[in-house]
Specification:
mainly alpha; rod-shaped
């Protein structure tokens, strides 16, 4: 696999964006897993 110098740069940039998107997704998901049961227990969704 002989790649030009630009390809690893583009790949690293794409990988960083994917990593940031994944981090934000799991952060929001984790917060919702904490917030929703709390709101249900407090009777917010009645």
């Amino acid at each position: 696999m002989n790649q030009s110098p630009q390809n690893p740069n583009k790949f690293q940039s794409w990988l960083k964006k994917l990593g940031l998107a994944g981090f934000l997704f799991f952060l929001i998901k984790g917060l919702l897993w904490l917030i929703i049961p709390y709101l249900i227990a407090k009777g917010f969704f009645k």
